[in-house]
Amino acid sequence: MLTARTVARETLSFDETPLPALTPGHALVEIHAVSLCGTDLHIFEDDFPTDLPLVQGHEMAGIIRDADTVGGLQVGDRVAIDPVVACGTCRACRIGRDNVCQNLSVLGCYEDGGFVEVLSVPVDRLCPVPDDLPLEVAAVGEPASISLQAVSRAEPAAGETALVLGCGPIGLLAALGLSERGVTVVAADTDPDRVALARTFGAAHAFEVGREFPDAGQRATLDALTEGAGPEIVIEATGVPASLENAIRLIAPAGRIVQVGISSRSVGLKIKDLTDKEIDLRGSRNSRRLIPEGLAMLARHPEAADALLTHRFPFSRLAEAFHTMSDRTIPTGKILILMPAAQAVTS
After folding, report:
1. What is the pLDDT of residues 285-317, one digit of tens each?
2. Which of 24, 41, 150, 192 sits at 20 to 30 Å (Cα–Cα) from 332?
3. Cα 233 from chain centroid?
4. 141, 166, 126: which is closest to 35 by C-alpha?
5. Model confidence, pTM
6. Which of 1.20.1250.20, 3.10.105.10, 2.10.109.10, 3.90.180.10 is the CATH number of 2-128+301-346?
């Protein structure tokens, strides 16, 4: 089978490799589609704490071709793959939080992933794709689950107001998840094209962030929605330190801030910023097996899924896809890589 490895900074090697052997508790999945995210780009640019060479690809979907045992699934079923590899024995795993396993690994990030024609996957990490959801869209089930984990961490209640900072795919999908739960969503981003998308994802208001945020008009909107208290929920999906500082400043007393955007940078805040309003500041990582919920949400909102998928590349043009993603002059949502099996179906 054909396998793509990232062997050095911005360097791919396409090689013929043996098909994986079927092992107990695993299935062989013919990969049809893989979508790219910011982590993939960091790995490609060798700016991520993992070792190269590596077969990338952690947002993926395909068809079961063989299995030792498939439980409620069958050979031939369409599936999305949960890439989390947890030890099952550490404290986090024992309390049902395997998304933050002490010995966590992730296919395509810390060990070989989906840029292969056939991948061996533990059966319990296979998620059936709804009949009315295209298989290529199912690759986005993984980032949808990341967003829904952040929504879950926020503990939203109908009638509340949430501010989503960052209208990239994770922020937009979080907005969609919040709006489905009866929350009034205000979305904000520096990119006007992304701001324009926010209403498709359930945002009642969408703000373009300028030098001063919020400006007088945006502040008036937030005050009107929240009786001047501020939003009960903020989802911070940019990873920009100033954005988290804004979240702390804007959140309502006793509000919940969920940090899902990733960064290694430091944030400037005073301890009093947390205690004065008794803020809940919560991190969010991966998801607690929420891919099925993410797939169902995408199936309910095909217009949002279509808006999210801005580019499609064949497997042979994977390097071009990465370079498109890195080019800040090209507006991109999710970039899909169509694997040889998918191309064979459409040709």
Report:
1. 999 999 999 999 999 999 999 999 999 999 999
2. 150
3. 19
4. 141
5. 0.95
6. 3.90.180.10
